[in-house]
Amino acid sequence: MSDAVPRDLLAFDREHLWHPYTSMTAPAQVRAVVGASGARLWLSESGSPADAVNVVDGMSSWWSAIHGYRHPRLDQAVKDQVDRFSHVMFGGLTHSPAVTLGRALVELTPEGLDKVFLADSGSVAVEVALKMVLQHQRGVGRPERRRFLTVRGGYHGDTFHPMSVTDPDGGMHGMWRGVLPEHVFAPRPPAYDAGPAEVEAWATAFRAVADEHAHELAGIVVEPLLQGAGGMWPYPVACLQVMREVADELGMLLVFDEIATGFGRTGHLFVSELVRPDVLCLGKALTGGYLTLAAVVTTEAVGRGISASESGVLMHGPTFMGNPLACAVAVESLRVLTRTDWRATVARIGGRLATGLASLRDLPGVKDVRTIGAVGVVQLEQRVDVKAATDAAIAAGAWLRPFNDLVYAMPPYVCTDTEVDTIVAAIHAATRASLEATA
């Protein structure tokens, strides 16, 4: 078997490879990445480096590559671990990268979150978290509590239980209604700049839903402070405080899905610093985008409840749990992040996004412009023309991946001011191109 020559690469891809949320019979255009370094990608429409264009990655490879590409310290961490061993089973064995990563997560996450389960991906982390909650309720004598409370507008992954707590109407998984378990949905939290009266009205509605179903609810699961793929929707921290109070009052566990929000993206290392959950899911940027890895961090009390259930053990064990390569690069990624002034970096990027995107609020066809941390979002009044928007963004010098009615960016933290400004210009171009294409 030989590597495909460049001219065959994209043709074979189109004929045989499925891409995320893409038709098999009418596949969308893809571009070949022929190089990457820092915050930049080299993209080719032919598959050949000869015609590649250099663009800033405004997506951080779906929010994971916070340190950019070919980071020397992360590269070296992977190479060093390959020279030792690449993988061993985690059943009955352990190794230094997993232990070192576990220690780092216990130290970095809020006090009391000190039990770490290493999973394969974000969706699996949510699966594990939901399983933890259900087993805990069985262990403390409440096996009838088998449903979850969440809010509209959320997104938690593509496997079955995460799909079941994703918005059933506005989300991506409405076609599975009747197949998925049916959980309980409260209203979406108000916008991040909502006043006290609006927050209080939402809190009253949330409490009413929780009270009505309290006898059957095992836990609350939400993306804290910022809903991601469900709409890039930031909301007030006061809503999280309400969720914490309701969980405590009604005997539920609170699960925070910080797969998108963790590692500084919102301006907080973890939103859980503001309101502590009982179970915390981490992923995406955990390894700096190098390898797939996730973690579920929970409390001693939750662990004791699980141990008291009829199985006596948490019933989950992925083959690649605690993969040494992934753990080694995750350890180095955390060192890179925490030994720099990441707060100032996120504030710098967020400030330039906010300033640069503000004028789009006045553009006809734009519904909203919002920013939080190192996230910038333009919401249109109708669905984005993805092809027109993508082509325009690349022509302006950046890679963006719009979806639904959103043109947005989550830049790598290594972006210079000039690179952030290029992303801003690309969002402007993508927004205008989409509006013109759908006029």
Unreliable spans: none
Count of DSSP E strands?
Answer: 16
Amount of helix: 25-40%
Helix and strand composition category: alpha/beta
**What is the 3D form?**
globular
Q: What order do the helices and strands follow?
A: HEEEHHHEHEHEHEEEHEEEHHHEEHEEH
Question: Over the alpha carbons, how many angstroms does the gyration radius reach?
Answer: 22 Å
- Hey, roughly how much beta strand do the residues contain? 15-25%
Number of helices: 13
Give the integer mean of the pLDDT values.
95
Lateral arrangement of strands in the main beta sheet: 4-12-11-10-7-5-6
Key attributes of the depicted protein:
seven-stranded mixed beta sheet, four-stranded mixed beta sheet, 13 helices, 16 strands
